[in-house]
Amino acid sequence: MSGPALRPESPEDEAFLRALFAEEAVPALCEAGLDGRRAEQLAAIQHRARGEGYRAQFPEARFSIILHDGVPIGRLVEDEAAARIVDIAVLRARRRRGVARAVLAAAQARWCRAGQAGQASVLAGNTASLRLFEGLGFHAHPRADRPDIALVWAPAASGSPVPDRLRLPLVFDPVPLLRDLDTLAASGWIAHFVTGHYTGDWSVIPLRGPAGATHPVSMAYSHPAAAAFADTPFLAQCPAFAAVLAAFACPLRAVRLMRLGPGAVIREHRDHDLAFEQGSVRIHVPVVTNPGVDFRLNGRPVTMEPGSAWYLRLSDPHGVANRGAAARIHLVIDAGVNPWLADLFGRAQA
């Protein structure tokens, strides 16, 4: 099953949106003394008035339906220009499953890329929503003259929404991956072009690269501003690696097999754009490794077994030494943050 996704609202969603609003409004109106039928009628009026109010107050807002496996389960209203969450709601039956958290984390990633502080507000009595936002690093600012609490989020103030390393809840059989490596044996590995970062053998085979690239070297290395990526002819020979990539329901950018030969060392460095907070992540799937591999991130070792999948915040200091007798080969996936990926991270182990 996939994580949450977004699509634009349409007029056909009105019945769902009315029911979503009524789930909270009708019980509250009944508690206030209205009978069921009158409560439903008033809730429909309130729903219509709120929608009109949102569009008048936030004319640039984006109105989206939250989907899970293609089924509507909630709504997001976001003023992207102002980095403001106007409204987020999820059906009661789909709550406490990380849906709202995943959608909000994806919004945080967008704000990071734009260098913006995020905003939201919740009613003072809505403790569940307040805990959700505070858990994502929002800071609460109660207002004596208003019934709601202002919430502000800034990357520098909140810290990282995710740790510097996460073992993702995905496992791949390394045996078919090894067969694909054998298929590529005659293709030839391409030496990494940043020679100042390493000693020994550090080389790659590109499986996805900049769209339109025709030479293996241009497939292997993309300009930071590259926006369009495509599968390479090497991936067409590798059904097992293709199956791994198909498991990621998020934008895939550069994808490479990366080999570090015996005795090779990658010096400590930073890849400044590779962090969840900046909307771009790098995921490692080890294919071949050995006990002599010493990968360090922020000075602490990261041990990754064949077939596991790891997010590493590589905008932080990191380096690796292969002191073993065999090459270390990883499938390295660069991907864009979306609600599905944020949900996956929310279920991962630090």
Defining traits:
350 residues; Aminopeptidase; Jelly Rolls; 8-stranded antiparallel sheet; 10 helices; 33% strand
SSE arrangement:
Elements (H helix, E strand, L loop, with lengths): L3 E5 L5 H18 L4 H22 L4 E7 L2 E9 L4 E7 L8 H16 L3 E6 L3 H9 L3 E4 L5 E6 L1 H4 L6 E7 L2 H10 L6 E2 L6 E2 L2 E9 L5 H5 L8 E3 L1 H4 L2 H8 L5 E9 L4 E5 L10 E9 L4 E5 L2 E2 L6 E5 L5 E5 L5 E9 L2 H8 L4
Antiparallel strand pairs: 1-2, 2-3, 3-4, 5-7, 6-7, 8-18, 9-11, 10-14, 11-12, 11-13, 13-20, 14-19, 15-18, 15-20, 16-17, 16-19
Helix pairs in contact: 1-2, 3-10
Mind describing the biggest β-sheet? 8 strands, antiparallel
Low-confidence stretches: none
Number of β-strand runs: 20
Helix and strand succession? EHHEEEHEHEEHEHEEEHEHHEEEEEEEEH
Overall geometry comes to: elongated
- What is the CATH T-level topology of the largest domain? Jelly Rolls
The CATH architecture term of the largest domain is Sandwich
Number of domains: 2
Number of helices: 10
Strand content: 25-35%
Proportion of residues in helical segments: 25-40%
How much is the radius of gyration in Å?
24 Å
CATH class of the largest domain: Mainly Beta
> What is the CATH homologous superfamily assignment of the largest domain?
B-lactam Antibiotic, Isopenicillin N Synthase, Chain
Mean pLDDT: 89
Q: Give the distance, in angstroms, between the N- and C-terminal Cα atoms.
A: 22 Å
Category by helix and strand content: alpha+beta
> What is the multimeric organization of the chains shown?
single chain
Give structural notes:
With 350 residues, this protein is of the alpha+beta class. 30% of the residues lie in helices and 33% in strands. It has helices at 14-31, 36-57, 99-114, 127-135, 155-158, 174-183, 216-220, 233-236, 239-246, 339-346; strands at residues 4-8, 62-68, 71-79, 84-90, 118-123, 139-142, 148-153, 165-171, 190-191, 198-199, 202-210, 229-231, 252-260, 265-269, 280-288, 293-297, 300-301, 308-312, 318-322, 328-336. The strands form four sheets. Strands 8, 9, 11, 12, 13, 15, 18 and 20 form an eight-stranded antiparallel sheet that branches. The chain is elongated, with a radius of gyration of 24 Å.
